[in-house]
Specification:
alpha/beta, Rossmann fold, Structural Genomics Hypothetical 15.5 Kd Protein In mrcA-pckA Intergenic Region, Chain A, 3 domains, 6-stranded mixed beta sheet, 5-stranded mixed beta sheet, 13 strands, elongated
Amino acid sequence: MNIDEAIAYLTKGCVDVVTADALKAKLARGKPLTVKVGFDPTAPDLHLGHTVLLRKMKHFQDLGHRVIFLIGDFTGMIGDPTGKSKTRPALSAEDIERNAETYKAQVYKILDPIKTEVRLNREWLGSLGSDGIVRLAATYNVARMLERRDFRQRYESGQAISVHEFLYPLAQAYDSVALKADVELGGTDQLFNLNVGRDIMPSYGLEPQVVLTTPLLEGLDGIEKMSKSLDNYVGVADAPAVMYAKVLSISDELMWKYYTLLTDLSIGAIQVERERNVPMESKMALARSITRDFHGQLAASEAEAEWRQVHQQRRAPSEMPLVRLAPGSYKAHELAFASGLTKSKSDAARLVKARAVRCDGAVLDGASVIALVLGQSRIVQVGPRSFARIEAADA
């Protein structure tokens, strides 16, 4: 790639590029750049929202740059309050160590393990010492720190801000000093912290790093940021069939953001795909691509075959939970709840009324009664994707 092509590839999907001219100048030198991305090990199970940054790291790897996956074992004990209305509790050393190991096991699903340098920032922050902390604190002032939105809002509303919270952006910034970073990547919610790194590097005789931010990825609902707590996520560790089906559940419009942020296709190639105007084919291609990235080609093909079996051929999936119940007669909502596929009996009754519950393929209604006989099994389905095999057995 020439420099303009490289910049287009590296900034694809980015929201902020601070600055494009500086990135061009660094690339023009013809030397590998040091690219840093920090992860605080607060939630070790990665989902596709986390992989937006990982994929951008991979793009730099593709072009031969040095990529550092930085685990914030020191900063994780401070606790980044970004987006929070109050101080975030710090993690214990044991939590951080356990979560960090889980991260390492997952990131290599995207990053090249040979080309990825894993560092922990306790290496330099833990030995900075009192003199070093004072010098670091002297590179910034309180007025600029209060420009950060969550700090400003808390200050103006009279909510407490602990002094140690000011150390978080400074400690993250010092990571860039210690690593002599040319580029730092992060989500849009990290823009303030990333720019602090740019601001303090000249105080240590270093050229300011370039900052690139990626957007926060909406979850399956298309509204809220992808999050495990909102149950709108696709987990990196999800089984292939689950991952494939979840991706197919997103809206046609959200699909194109997923194409931009979760594939290596160029903007031009994505536009060509969009202009074909066959949304279902495009979405299945996206689901195959994402599932293949994390589980391999064979698993992606099997996941698609499973989805076709369930949703196009209207057959039960090959694998499903097995629930053993006592022989007897069950009303439709009782069977749905006993299968473990509904949250409560009232929820089951609501789904039966909506004609969303089936037994052996037949739609159940409020008057349905299902007999379970010893040695017999039935397939219960709730909604389009939830199945369970019910088997009558002695208690």
